[in-house]
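ENTRY TYPE: paired fold submission
RECORD: A
CONTENT: sequence, then structure tokens
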Amino acid sequence: MHVMLAWFAAAPLPEPARAARMDRFERAAAEVVPDTWRRHEFGGDDWGILVLHPADPGAYRWPTVGTGGPVTAVSLGIPVGLDTAAGPTALAARLLAGEDVHREAVPPFGLLALDRDRFALQQDWLGMARVFTGAADGVNAWCTRPGLLAAFLHGRARPDLAGWTSYTLCGHFGGGLSPIDGTRLLRPGERVTGRRRAEGGWHLSNELRYATDDVVCGGYADQGRPLDERLDRAADALTRAAASLHRLHDAEVTLGLSGGKDSRLIAATLIAAGRTPRLVTNDDTPAEGAVARRLVQLLRDKRGLRPDHRTQLAGAPASVLGTGLRERARRLALLHDHQFPSTYLVRPAVRDRLPEVARAASLTGAAGELAVGYWYPAADADPAPTPEQAGLTKLLAGVPHAAAAPEALAAERERVTAVLAHARGLGLRDEHLVDYLYLVERMRRWCTSAYLTGMVTPFLAPGFVATTFALSVAQKRDRLLHTALIARLVPEWAEVPFVSAATGPSTAARVWEGDGVAAVADLLDTAHGPLTGLMRRPVVEQALRRAVRGDRPDPRVLQQFTALAVASERLEPGTARASTGATYARLVAPPRPRTPAKGRLAALRWIRRTRLGDRLWVSVRRRVRGR
């Protein structure tokens, strides 16, 4: 993980103005950046670049900042998939020369190249690298954290309601939306270039280069190619991505091996290439652990391999509930600038400052969903929804729709419908529209590898993504790519069934456990800014009431409201009310005793409370009204 701020002004700035901006940035950064981090600073009176990163680079061979002659390269991520033999400044020089150096990159990866009086900043083809941009008073700036960008530009951070509307309904910020007003995420393939004028100040230009639509349409056009050719392309993309990571990281790589299909395919790719990763399995769902252990045992029995395999409980109540829900939410929001999914509230509390040491490289099976129709409706659905309907249903599932403010739901429907219309305009048809939505929305903004340098997603290798769009809908439903490649690479795994979401229960903590009910009840009393207005408060209280009764409420309601309320406390100062405990007292109060009715009226009420009595009552009422 790293922090980068770059700014370029239309004219030279007076020193007091520059100092004031940087002071605001430094004070905001001090909340999360350790004092031990290394600093790199470049600039003048009309531009500046500041890069902060752990002083200990761990096992990475690729530096965050590289200099060679007049060229400086700032890498925002690890350049997995790229030709890196000549080093970072050579890659930066190619970018400055106008090349699409990002074409083969496995997102997230951004690159800033500087050479005297010119620069170029390139977003990856998916738009996944966390580079936010904004402008104020003739200054354009880019930063890896939207809150710090707002501090530099405006001196304050206010919520972007459109962004939070998307977060509420989708569970993540959609498209290029941001949690902070006045900032946005760079678009897929977006390139910013600048040249310094002779009299000072910079001339800037933006353009879209090789991007998501190019990858998708290139693959979709290959549907008529022989199947073996398409499978070869997918296998080659995965193998090259894994090999590229090993050249960039001088230590063992960890892979999260579940009982599912995606991590199994990545593991099979590595094993076939002669690289056995360190394996770790979350045992919260017992079926996951059982299948993973069986896969490892097969490697020992059939191949004589003895990989390091560790199992763990990622969401064990004992490790989660020791820190209160409100504090877990506060830390998660601070560490990741509000961008992590609220599902992580039922994981152990994160640190409240960025790490002192670069985290070791790891692989994740995210994005394999593109090859298996993960968001497709059931093949025998009756009536069968349109692809647009299916996509909207899947994406807008951050909360039950009854829990969202109607205007928020309408606004997000309109935004997502426009994304699907764009996909149709590209020529995509049938359920490939759903895959496009999954790629540009869910993978781009929800996948946690965007926030953790060194967490690599091989399935986002552009060759693999293109192949998923070259498969037919039927081939995806049959999981053809996964089953065929696993059978080709590690055939002894082919007959082991995949674990699905319905395989068995999980022992992980629930959001209402521990102090969850009391914490959310208090947030209902205190948090009254516009952000919490994106959800219907009576539905939140109803979910709490179910938890108090011992039922299982929909966790999305409580998790999303908690995230919104904690964000409101930070981004909407002055909107909080005093804590009264009224909601919690109402929830746990014993039910009021019924006041017995008297005489014939009581008898009639008692009769109506029975099923037969109610039917008789309705029948008599109809006859009376029919006279």
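RECORD: B
CONTENT: sequence, then structure tokens
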Amino acid sequence: MKFQMKTNPLIICSVLMLGVSTGLFAQDKKEGNIQNDDIILEKERKIVLQPQISRNFEPLTEIENTQKGRKMKYEFFDRKWDATNNTLLTTSVIGPREGDELVSSFGPKFKNLVKIGAGNYGHTLLNGHFGFTPKENQFQGVYINHDANRRGPVSMGNSSRNENEAKVYSKTFTGNYFLDGQISFKRTENNYYGRPEAAFASVPFIKDLEIAYNKFNYSGSISNSKKDVKWDYIATSGLTYLTNNYTSKEWIWDSKLQGILRVTDNFSAYLTGEMNMSENTFAFVNNRRELYRVKPTFLYKNNRLAVTGGLNIVNEKDANISMNKTRLFPLLKVDFKPTDFLHVFAGLGGETYFNSYNQYTSENNWLDPRLAPSLQNTTQTSNIYGGIKGSNERNLDFELKFGYSEYNNLAMFLNSTSDPSHFEMIYANTKVEKSAKVFNMSGQVNYQTFDKVLSILKYDFNTYQDIVYDQADLSTINKPIHRPMMSLSFTNSITFKDKIIVSPDLFYISGLYSFEKSLTPKAEPLDDIIDLNLKVNYLITKKFNISVSANNLLGKNYQRYLNYTSQGLNYTVGVAYSF
């Protein structure tokens, strides 16, 4: 399923000419319907420029007046190897949901917002968004965020954390194009507190424990805004520059272009071009890495059947190890619709995932700053999958997917030998002749009832075989280190009297293994993680509301990463004013 070939300069030049970045392209669709197409972009006749408010700065989804009922919003994604759950010390598994303060019984609120909050563990929160519309077809905004804990779960201030972010952005609709751009700066500060309580006595100053990251980001996109055109496209490009308070730094330029040519009502041609260029500096040593991708595909569909076929051509370069390798993966997906409610699908493919220092620090804040992290891309040499999905186009959507994949260079976080409170990067199955086998079952169910209750259940279950590490002291280990075998989330939103929104959430992670070198090295299982959260949002007026969020209600000081215990029961009381 994987073919090796020499690098083709024509392929590389084609990607460079494509230049810029991602998107989803699409056909008309009904509300709540799961589409056959892999690439989807909804186009409305009038584009509404909405402010971005949430803590993670994701686009605000408008929620209608509760008297008229809420629309369901669901998203299904193809599973990727790289982890998506960042290490957040406020709730340890996932941060509290934001954005509810923009909704009231009167409908959506205004585009300016100020929110302040405080809680235990010395938690302070300041969140603000200030937007304006100089013209009917433009929207600009400024976003600021401060989120910190003066104390943590271990040794008071020695496990404190701090996060500050500022962002400006602009959106413009010209009638022919939709332009979107933003510039941001974010600084996070954490401490290496993963050590016994007595060990803090040997640390002279708290600054000696600090690891801080500064990240600058610019991104912009341009897309076609015309409806029902034969040629459609969206392109984005961005630059990220990351440094820490030691000597490490990395910049990444990533760009992507996706285009679709609708030849007939039943036949379309897709082309994706992607470029990732980066340079990192660790211990004053520079290294240049690149990844290019060209993905031509063709789609045929009728009322009952959709067939997608094509190629995924990936070239990766690494100056440090003199690597220049091109891989070719065949792509095929068949989607059959036996009834109006149900889809049955199956497919095959492969992929190379670009790993970066920026990605690793987002997953784990406590990488060893004295060691150069090994940056290698993860290759999915083969992927066979199938499943079912469906929607009744009213209140129920679901997807169940099974897959079998083989991987090389699986990235793992391992406690450092010199200091167990620091983490190193290691890779499993680095040799092509011995791939890791991963069996996966994943899915999602979304349900809405009585226009008052929204529930979303997501799960991801994996079993691993033939995990092999090249290091001699890890030769007896056959478990993925700090990678969960099962993840489950159950999130809910319940509305009472159109003014009180109660959001109980449950998160569960199991199958985590850790490893510390000893006389008899072996992988040790970590305790399962059960995180129960509750948020209550009271909409007092159209402009003013208060909220109370309580996280880790069971008070378990679990460990997502070995030696790093999470906060116990933590709560935050906040007030928000929009205008």
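NOTES ON RECORD B: The radius of gyration is 24 Å. Residues 310 and 467 are 30 Å apart (CA to CA).
STATUS: closed
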